[in-house]
Amino acid sequence: MAKHGRDGTKELEESVKRVKSDSENNENNGGETLLCGFQTSSVLSESVREKTVFVHGKLDGQDAVVIMEKIPFGEDSLTDLFTGSRLKLEMRNDIYSTYWLRPPPHLSEIKTTVVFPATEKHVKKYQRQESFLLEESATDYESITLPYIQGQSFSVQWVYNILEKKAEAERIIYEDPDPEIGFVLLPDFKWDQKQVNNLYLIAIVHKRNIKSLRDLTLEHIPLLQNILQRGKEAILKCYNLPASKLRVYLHYQPSYYHLHIHFTKLGYEVPGCGVERAHLLADVIQNLQSDPKYYKTRTLYFPLRADDGLLSKFKEAGRL
Ligand code: DD3
User: Fold this and answer.
1) Domains along the sequence of the chain with CATH
2) 101-140: per-residue pLDDT in tens?
3) How far apart are CA 252 and CA 254, in angstroms?
4) Which residues, other chains included, contact 68 with Cβ-Cβ below 8 Å and sequence gap of 6+?
5) Ligand 1 binding pocket mutation candidate from 63, 155, 158, 191 (most atoms within 8 A of CB)
6) Dihedral sign, CA of 125, 126, 127, 131?
7) Which tens digits make up the pLDDT trace of 248-262?
8) Which residues does the annotation mark as catalytic?
């Protein structure tokens, strides 16, 4: 488990360095040349603003999705950037001049995520899609959503790997091993971990039978309170970020059906943090306190993408 003290940034840097040298030592096992043979089929989506691109292609004849993202400037790297770079002049005019700066290799890294082999679902997930807001009553959940979830083989093997320390063990920043109210807290891999400005951690519960918000009742309050309390404490200790700077919430629908809580930095407008999908953990706790069956009985609203299988089920049932 990574050690983190009061001085969050130093420790953060240290753990980032460690993760890097781990993967550097790994050579090909760490995938150094993995993408050399990548054959692009299509660009699924891209965003000029987010500076991301999602590419579908083939590796060894199998489908793969590669996600690349240029990361923000970190304040700590500015000195290295100025001293270690060369400029190529583009134009000069009066007191104005523009350049192309060629940064040293360690400052020109692109955050890259590879899904391989990718299923058709992975490929679809990253195609730009229209979304629609659905209204799910308690009976809709029982008759449409629940059977759909159960019929799907949404694999959460990667979640079990984290809980069993078969993957990402060194990335865990806090763990409460209690089987009832315990959880693991670690960086979501969307976070570059280079700066706290776009902090994104997930708490994954040890208990395995809670699919989503819909399953929560009074009996889960101790679990939820534990995550809220201890999660905030761990983030303060590790990254020096107080609870007043955190957005702590659940998604409905979640992207995987094993209960997990998102911790993101306030001000960082991460996809999925809008009112149509995010439920603040503190609100969830209060709602359960005032009505133990709140999430079993209420109508819940959520957006679905046009190609989502669940959307078709709602259409078939005449609910859209
Ligand atoms: C996922 C939601 C899931 C494709 C992609 C992402 N954080 C993860 C595996 C390991 C992780 C995550 C599913 C999958 Cl790009 C399909 O996310 C993960 N590890 N969000 C961490 N730390």
Assistant:
1) 10-71+109-115 (no CATH), 129-316 (3.30.428.10)
2) 999 999 999 999 999 999 998 999 899 899 999 999 999 9
3) 5
4) 52, 53, 55, 110, 111, 112, 113
5) 158
6) positive
7) 999 999 999 999 999
8) 260
